[in-house]
Amino acid sequence: MMLKASPTLTLVNPNADFAKNNPTPLFSCNSFGYFKSISMKKMSGFVVCASKNANSKPITGVVFEPFEEVKKELNLVPSVPQDSLARQKFTDSSESAINEQINVEYNVSYVYHGMYAYFDRDNVALKGLAKFFKESSDEEREHAQKLMEYQNKRGGKVKLQSILMPLSEFDHAEKGDALYAMELALSLEKLTNEKLLNLHAVASKNNDVQLADFVENEYLGEQVESIKKISEYVAQLRRIGKGHGVWHFDQMLLHELEGAAA
Question: Which keywords accompany this UniProt record (predicted)?
Answer without folding.
Answer: Chloroplast, Iron, Iron storage, Metal-binding, Oxidoreductase, Plastid, Transit peptide
